[in-house]
Design goal:
The longest helix is centred in the middle third of the chain and has 12 residues. It is globular and about 60 Å long. The model has no long low-confidence stretch (mean pLDDT about 95). About 50% of the residues are buried. α3 runs parallel beside α4, α3 packs across α7 and α5 packs across α6. The chain contains ten helices and 15 strands. By secondary structure, the chain is of the alpha/beta class. The chain has two domains: about 130 residues, Rossmann fold, CATH 3.40.50.1000; about 100 residues, Rossmann fold. It binds magnesium ion (MG).
Length: about 270
Protein backbone atom coordinates (compact mmCIF):
# COMPACT_ATOMS: atom_id res chain seq x y z
CA UNK A 1 0.00 0.00 0.00
CA UNK A 2 1.22 3.51 -0.83
CA UNK A 3 1.59 5.93 2.08
CA UNK A 4 -0.92 8.44 0.68
CA UNK A 5 -3.62 5.85 -0.01
CA UNK A 6 -5.06 5.79 3.51
CA UNK A 7 -5.88 9.54 3.38
CA UNK A 8 -8.34 11.55 1.32
CA UNK A 9 -7.02 15.05 2.13
CA UNK A 10 -3.34 15.95 1.84
CA UNK A 11 -2.35 19.23 3.51
CA UNK A 12 0.98 20.39 2.15
CA UNK A 13 3.24 22.94 3.76
CA UNK A 14 5.15 24.88 1.08
CA UNK A 15 8.71 26.02 1.87
CA UNK A 16 10.92 23.04 2.69
CA UNK A 17 8.33 20.64 1.26
CA UNK A 18 7.66 21.66 -2.37
CA UNK A 19 10.40 24.25 -2.80
CA UNK A 20 13.23 25.64 -0.74
CA UNK A 21 13.63 29.34 -1.41
CA UNK A 22 14.05 29.54 -5.18
CA UNK A 23 14.86 25.87 -5.69
CA UNK A 24 12.24 23.25 -6.52
CA UNK A 25 12.47 20.17 -4.31
CA UNK A 26 13.25 17.12 -6.38
CA UNK A 27 10.21 15.05 -7.30
CA UNK A 28 7.67 17.52 -5.85
CA UNK A 29 5.92 18.47 -9.14
CA UNK A 30 5.63 14.84 -10.28
CA UNK A 31 4.43 13.64 -6.88
CA UNK A 32 1.67 16.24 -6.59
CA UNK A 33 0.58 15.48 -10.17
CA UNK A 34 0.44 11.74 -9.47
CA UNK A 35 -1.56 12.25 -6.26
CA UNK A 36 -4.02 14.45 -8.12
CA UNK A 37 -4.35 11.80 -10.83
CA UNK A 38 -5.24 9.23 -8.17
CA UNK A 39 -8.06 11.43 -6.84
CA UNK A 40 -6.53 12.87 -3.66
CA UNK A 41 -7.85 16.21 -2.49
CA UNK A 42 -5.05 18.68 -1.95
CA UNK A 43 -4.63 21.88 0.04
CA UNK A 44 -1.52 24.04 0.18
CA UNK A 45 -1.35 25.44 3.69
CA UNK A 46 0.84 28.36 4.72
CA UNK A 47 1.30 30.45 7.84
CA UNK A 48 2.54 33.30 5.63
CA UNK A 49 -0.23 35.90 5.53
CA UNK A 50 1.49 38.40 3.26
CA UNK A 51 0.84 36.71 -0.08
CA UNK A 52 -2.59 36.35 -1.66
CA UNK A 53 -3.75 32.88 -2.84
CA UNK A 54 -3.23 34.08 -6.41
CA UNK A 55 0.41 34.95 -5.63
CA UNK A 56 0.98 31.61 -3.85
CA UNK A 57 -0.52 29.65 -6.76
CA UNK A 58 1.72 31.56 -9.18
CA UNK A 59 4.82 30.74 -7.09
CA UNK A 60 3.90 27.03 -7.00
CA UNK A 61 3.18 26.96 -10.71
CA UNK A 62 6.58 28.59 -11.28
CA UNK A 63 8.09 25.54 -9.54
CA UNK A 64 6.11 23.18 -11.79
CA UNK A 65 3.62 22.28 -9.05
CA UNK A 66 0.17 22.70 -10.54
CA UNK A 67 -2.00 24.54 -8.02
CA UNK A 68 -5.45 26.05 -8.21
CA UNK A 69 -6.08 29.26 -6.30
CA UNK A 70 -8.96 27.52 -4.52
CA UNK A 71 -6.52 24.99 -3.04
CA UNK A 72 -4.41 27.64 -1.30
CA UNK A 73 -5.24 28.17 2.36
CA UNK A 74 -3.22 30.97 3.96
CA UNK A 75 -3.35 32.06 7.58
CA UNK A 76 -4.87 35.30 6.27
CA UNK A 77 -7.79 33.41 4.68
CA UNK A 78 -8.33 31.34 7.82
CA UNK A 79 -8.28 34.55 9.88
CA UNK A 80 -10.97 35.95 7.59
CA UNK A 81 -13.09 32.81 8.06
CA UNK A 82 -12.63 33.02 11.83
CA UNK A 83 -13.76 36.67 11.95
CA UNK A 84 -16.50 36.51 9.29
CA UNK A 85 -19.17 35.41 11.77
CA UNK A 86 -18.79 38.48 13.98
CA UNK A 87 -17.91 40.97 11.22
CA UNK A 88 -17.28 44.56 12.28
CA UNK A 89 -14.30 46.84 11.88
CA UNK A 90 -10.65 45.81 11.77
CA UNK A 91 -7.27 47.51 12.01
CA UNK A 92 -4.50 45.60 10.25
CA UNK A 93 -0.79 45.37 10.87
CA UNK A 94 0.09 43.33 7.80
CA UNK A 95 0.28 43.16 4.03
CA UNK A 96 -2.02 42.71 1.03
CA UNK A 97 -2.92 39.09 1.80
CA UNK A 98 -4.58 39.97 5.12
CA UNK A 99 -6.37 43.07 3.89
CA UNK A 100 -7.82 41.21 0.91
CA UNK A 101 -8.92 38.23 3.04
CA UNK A 102 -10.63 40.43 5.64
CA UNK A 103 -12.44 42.49 3.01
CA UNK A 104 -13.65 39.29 1.35
CA UNK A 105 -14.84 38.04 4.74
CA UNK A 106 -17.00 41.16 5.02
CA UNK A 107 -14.96 43.11 7.56
CA UNK A 108 -14.55 46.84 7.38
CA UNK A 109 -10.79 47.47 7.23
CA UNK A 110 -10.00 50.89 8.72
CA UNK A 111 -6.80 52.67 7.68
CA UNK A 112 -5.08 55.57 9.43
CA UNK A 113 -5.44 56.06 13.17
CA UNK A 114 -8.98 55.05 14.19
CA UNK A 115 -10.10 55.72 17.78
CA UNK A 116 -11.66 52.28 18.15
CA UNK A 117 -12.22 49.06 16.17
CA UNK A 118 -13.69 45.64 16.92
CA UNK A 119 -10.54 43.69 16.15
CA UNK A 120 -6.82 44.26 15.59
CA UNK A 121 -5.30 41.71 13.19
CA UNK A 122 -1.53 41.21 13.19
CA UNK A 123 0.54 39.43 10.57
CA UNK A 124 3.85 39.73 8.79
CA UNK A 125 4.42 43.31 7.69
CA UNK A 126 7.53 44.38 5.80
CA UNK A 127 6.40 48.02 5.93
CA UNK A 128 6.00 48.03 9.70
CA UNK A 129 6.33 51.41 11.42
CA UNK A 130 6.25 52.62 15.01
CA UNK A 131 3.02 54.46 14.19
CA UNK A 132 1.29 51.19 13.23
CA UNK A 133 2.47 49.46 16.42
CA UNK A 134 1.32 52.44 18.50
CA UNK A 135 -2.11 52.53 16.86
CA UNK A 136 -2.58 48.77 17.21
CA UNK A 137 -1.55 48.85 20.88
CA UNK A 138 -3.87 51.76 21.69
CA UNK A 139 -6.80 49.99 20.01
CA UNK A 140 -6.17 46.81 22.01
CA UNK A 141 -5.91 48.86 25.22
CA UNK A 142 -9.33 50.30 24.34
CA UNK A 143 -10.85 46.85 24.11
CA UNK A 144 -10.29 45.58 20.56
CA UNK A 145 -10.00 41.80 20.18
CA UNK A 146 -6.38 40.85 19.28
CA UNK A 147 -5.95 38.18 16.59
CA UNK A 148 -2.68 37.11 14.95
CA UNK A 149 -2.46 35.26 11.64
CA UNK A 150 0.46 33.29 13.05
CA UNK A 151 3.16 33.50 15.68
CA UNK A 152 6.24 32.52 13.65
CA UNK A 153 9.17 34.15 15.40
CA UNK A 154 11.20 34.54 12.26
CA UNK A 155 11.08 34.43 8.50
CA UNK A 156 13.83 32.32 6.90
CA UNK A 157 15.32 34.59 4.21
CA UNK A 158 18.28 33.72 1.97
CA UNK A 159 20.59 35.94 4.07
CA UNK A 160 19.37 34.78 7.49
CA UNK A 161 16.35 35.14 9.77
CA UNK A 162 14.13 38.21 9.56
CA UNK A 163 11.56 39.20 12.22
CA UNK A 164 8.38 37.16 11.68
CA UNK A 165 4.75 37.86 12.52
CA UNK A 166 5.31 36.54 16.05
CA UNK A 167 8.14 39.00 16.63
CA UNK A 168 5.90 41.85 15.48
CA UNK A 169 3.03 40.56 17.62
CA UNK A 170 5.28 40.45 20.68
CA UNK A 171 5.64 44.23 20.59
CA UNK A 172 1.86 44.61 20.97
CA UNK A 173 1.43 41.86 23.57
CA UNK A 174 4.39 43.23 25.55
CA UNK A 175 2.95 46.73 25.42
CA UNK A 176 -0.63 45.80 26.34
CA UNK A 177 -0.28 42.61 28.37
CA UNK A 178 -3.08 41.14 26.24
CA UNK A 179 -2.67 37.65 24.80
CA UNK A 180 -3.55 37.13 21.14
CA UNK A 181 -5.74 34.47 19.54
CA UNK A 182 -3.50 32.76 17.00
CA UNK A 183 -4.81 31.27 13.76
CA UNK A 184 -1.76 29.67 12.10
CA UNK A 185 0.07 26.41 12.77
CA UNK A 186 0.50 24.88 15.36
CA UNK A 187 -2.89 26.30 16.43
CA UNK A 188 -5.98 24.55 15.01
CA UNK A 189 -7.91 27.22 13.03
CA UNK A 190 -5.71 27.16 9.89
CA UNK A 191 -5.63 23.35 9.63
CA UNK A 192 -9.37 23.14 10.30
CA UNK A 193 -10.05 25.69 7.55
CA UNK A 194 -7.84 23.68 5.17
CA UNK A 195 -9.66 20.40 5.79
CA UNK A 196 -13.03 22.12 5.38
CA UNK A 197 -11.78 23.44 2.07
CA UNK A 198 -10.88 19.95 0.79
CA UNK A 199 -14.09 18.34 2.01
CA UNK A 200 -11.95 15.38 3.13
CA UNK A 201 -12.30 13.32 6.30
CA UNK A 202 -8.92 11.61 6.70
CA UNK A 203 -6.25 14.32 6.53
CA UNK A 204 -2.52 13.80 6.34
CA UNK A 205 -0.28 16.79 7.11
CA UNK A 206 2.99 17.01 5.18
CA UNK A 207 5.52 19.46 6.61
CA UNK A 208 9.17 20.15 7.35
CA UNK A 209 8.92 21.98 10.67
CA UNK A 210 8.26 19.93 13.81
CA UNK A 211 7.12 22.72 16.14
CA UNK A 212 4.51 24.09 13.73
CA UNK A 213 3.52 21.62 10.98
CA UNK A 214 3.83 18.41 12.97
CA UNK A 215 2.87 19.74 16.42
CA UNK A 216 -0.29 21.23 14.85
CA UNK A 217 -1.25 17.85 13.38
CA UNK A 218 -0.58 16.07 16.67
CA UNK A 219 -2.75 18.61 18.55
CA UNK A 220 -5.68 17.72 16.29
CA UNK A 221 -5.03 13.97 16.44
CA UNK A 222 -4.15 13.85 12.74
CA UNK A 223 -1.40 11.83 11.06
CA UNK A 224 1.66 13.62 9.72
CA UNK A 225 4.63 13.09 7.43
CA UNK A 226 7.81 14.93 8.39
CA UNK A 227 10.03 15.52 5.36
CA UNK A 228 13.73 16.18 5.87
CA UNK A 229 13.97 18.38 2.75
CA UNK A 230 13.53 21.57 4.78
CA UNK A 231 14.60 22.98 8.14
CA UNK A 232 14.63 19.79 10.23
CA UNK A 233 17.62 17.45 10.47
CA UNK A 234 17.48 13.85 11.77
CA UNK A 235 19.27 15.16 14.90
CA UNK A 236 16.52 17.77 15.45
CA UNK A 237 13.92 15.02 15.19
CA UNK A 238 15.81 12.87 17.66
CA UNK A 239 15.85 15.71 20.18
CA UNK A 240 12.16 16.58 19.80
CA UNK A 241 9.39 15.23 22.06
CA UNK A 242 6.92 15.66 19.17
CA UNK A 243 6.63 12.54 17.01
CA UNK A 244 5.39 12.54 13.40
CA UNK A 245 3.55 9.45 12.15
CA UNK A 246 5.99 9.08 9.24
CA UNK A 247 9.44 10.42 8.35
CA UNK A 248 11.00 10.56 4.88
CA UNK A 249 13.64 12.43 2.92
CA UNK A 250 11.04 14.20 0.76
CA UNK A 251 7.48 14.11 -0.59
CA UNK A 252 8.19 11.27 -2.99
CA UNK A 253 7.58 8.98 -0.01
CA UNK A 254 3.84 9.66 -0.39
CA UNK A 255 3.91 7.38 -3.41
CA UNK A 256 6.19 4.90 -1.67
CA UNK A 257 5.59 2.05 0.70
CA UNK A 258 3.59 2.83 3.85
CA UNK A 259 5.42 0.36 6.10
CA UNK A 260 8.79 1.81 5.14
CA UNK A 261 7.93 5.40 6.16
CA UNK A 262 6.37 4.20 9.42
CA UNK A 263 9.49 2.21 10.25
CA UNK A 264 11.68 5.26 9.56
CA UNK A 265 9.59 7.28 12.01
CA UNK A 266 10.25 4.73 14.70
CA UNK A 267 13.97 5.05 14.08
MG1 LIG B 1 7.98 24.74 5.79
Amino acid sequence: MRLADGYDALLFDLDGVLYRGDRTIEGAPETVAALRASGHRIAFVTNNSARTPEQVAAKLTGHGVVADEAEIVTSALATGELLAADGGSAYVVGEAGIREALLEAGLDVIEGEPAAVDVVVVGWDRDLTYAKLRTASLLVERGARLVATNADRSFPAPDGFWPGAGAILSVITTTTGVEAEIVGKPHPPLYEAAVRRTGGRQPLVIGDRIETDIAGAVALGWDSLLVLSGVTSPEDLGASPVRPTYVADDVRALLGDLARARADANG
